[in-house]
Amino acid sequence: MERYWTTGDCWLGCERTGVQVLWLGPIQWDGWTAPFMACAPCLDRLLAQARAHWLRRLRVTTAS
User: Fold this and answer.
1) CA quadruple 14, 16, 22, 28: dihedral positive or negative?
2) How many domains does the chain divide into?
3) Domain that holds residue 56
4) What's the pLDDT score for residue 64?
5) pLDDT value of position 59
6) Which of 1, 7, 55, 62 gives the lowest tally of CB atoms within 10 Å of its CB?
7) Cβ-based neighbours of 12, under 8 Å, separated by 6 or more
8) Residue 49 CB coordination number (10 Å)
9) What is the mean pLDDT of each run of 10 residues along the chain (64 residues)?
10) Cα–Cα distance for residue pair 14/29, rounded to 1 Å
11) Which whole-number Å values give the CA distances from 4 to 10, 22, 39, 50, 64, in the listed order?
12) DSSP of 18-34, one letter per residue?
């Protein structure tokens, strides 16, 4: 999967502007759409949260 970084605003958490961001997908609400972009530090934090979630689920599944 290719990733295309661009200069923009991070919508994920830090709200920094004018930084390298990656498009994660569209946000849709009440018929409106906006691009969801995130910088590398926020993506790293999100990935760490996801990995912790996956590991918890693995422990529960293998313990059953």
Assistant:
1) positive
2) 1
3) 5-63
4) 62
5) 81
6) 1
7) 24, 36, 37, 38, 39, 42, 43, 46
8) 10
9) 91 95 95 96 96 89 69
10) 22
11) 14, 6, 12, 22, 41
12) SEEEEEEEEEEETTEEE
C-alpha distance from residue 34 to each of 2, 5, 11, 37, 48 (Å): 21, 17, 10, 9, 25
Q: How many residues does the chain have?
A: 64
The first and second tokens of residue 1, run together, are 């999967």
Rounded Cα distance between 45 and 64, Å, is: 29
Amino acid of residue 12: L
- Whose tokens are 């609400």? That residue is 29
Structure tokens at 50: 């996801």
